[in-house]
Design brief:
The protein is mainly α and 296 residues long. Helices cover 82% and strands 0% of the residues. Helix 1 packs antiparallel against helix 9, helix 2 packs across helix 8 and helix 2 packs across helix 9.
């Protein structure tokens, strides 16, 4: 739970910090380059050390991880941030992720979820629908493109989470290959296309983004999230992340001036209640049931 809460706090701040930076001088291209470029440098010693060298199969799995939870994921969430709000982006991407992870595990891995967890998933969906509806009543219809980008990002994150648990890679190894592959994929295109806005930003802004994007997000957050999945299991670890809307919305009030309405606050509380239900371990009987039926 400590690993999960640490990743929760860092991820919550990421939505607010990224939206804040995109409203100033740095753009999402700069943020993505910092996140994975610095992360690749940070993890290079892990991969270059003789005892830590990975076999080719691990690098192939890492490439898939980078596609699911690397640069493409960040760019999709950033697009959602631009087209919606910090609260909506944090709510959709992170609350749908545990629901989709549970659904994928049930459909493709025959993992039972238990009644309590299904009720939690349903509450998360109801709260999310209420949050989007209340935002639409206040600010007009939501941007469909932004919503679709966030839903796709949630599905990619859920798929990564399930594959990581089965991959055999450690938390640090997974974080390292994600950063290295994402850097290889994105940074050359970033430089060749001249997407940099660093000349417009102050040294303090760049230093802050290096610390948050490159060290906290690419280093600490990925490792802590992976450790929580290892120790709690997919469903419980991802459900803790569903608490992110409450934390992100609280941070967005003083930093971005985005104050949720009473309806939005109520919807977030429903999401939190659903996340707490879904985070509880499924009963042993619920887990065994699908396996027994499969054997029969």
């Amino acid at each position: 739970m400590i690993w999960a809460c640490a990743s929760l706090l860092i991820f919550s701040g990421w939505f607010v910090v990224t939206r804040f930076s995109m409203a100033r001088n740095l753009q999402i291209w700069d943020i993505t380059a910092l996140r994975f470029g610095v992360g690749a440098l940070l993890f290079a010693p892990v991969l270059l050390h003789r005892k830590s060298r990975l076999p080719p199969a691990a690098w192939r799995e890492g490439f898939l991880f980078a596609l699911l939870w690397g640069a493409p994921f960040v760019l999709l969430v950033a697009l959602g941030l631009q087209l919606t709000s910090a609260a909506q982006a944090a709510s959709i991407a992170t609350t749908l992720m545990p629901v989709l992870a549970g659904l994928f595990a049930w459909l493709f891995l025959s993992e039972g979820q238990g009644l309590r967890r299904w009720i939690g998933y349903a509450a998360i969906c109801v709260g999310l629908a209420g949050l989007v509806a209340s935002g639409a009543a206040l600010r007009g219809p939501p941007n469909i493109g932004g919503l679709l980008a966030l839903v796709l990002a949630a599905a990619m994150w859920a798929s990564y989470t399930l594959r990581f648990r089965k991959s055999g890679l450690t938390a640090i190894q997974s974080a390292a290959v994600i950063c290295v592959w994402s850097s290889v994929i994105f940074v050359p295109a970033y430089l060749l296309l001249g997407l940099s806005h660093f000349a417009l930003a102050s040294a303090s802004e760049i230093a802050f983004q290096i610390a948050y994007q490159g060290i906290l997000m690419s280093g600490v957050a990925i490792v802590t999230f992976n450790r929580s999945v290892e120790q709690l299991g997919t469903a419980a670890a991802t459900s803790v992340i569903a608490l992110l809307p409450a934390v992100a919305s609280g941070l967005a009030i003083p930093i971005l001036g985005e104050i949720p309405t009473a309806a939005e606050a109520a919807a977030i509380l429903v999401i939190v209640a659903g996340a707490l239900l879904a985070a509880r371990p499924a009963s042993a009987a619920a887990v065994r049931a699908p396996l027994q039926s499969k054997e029969n």
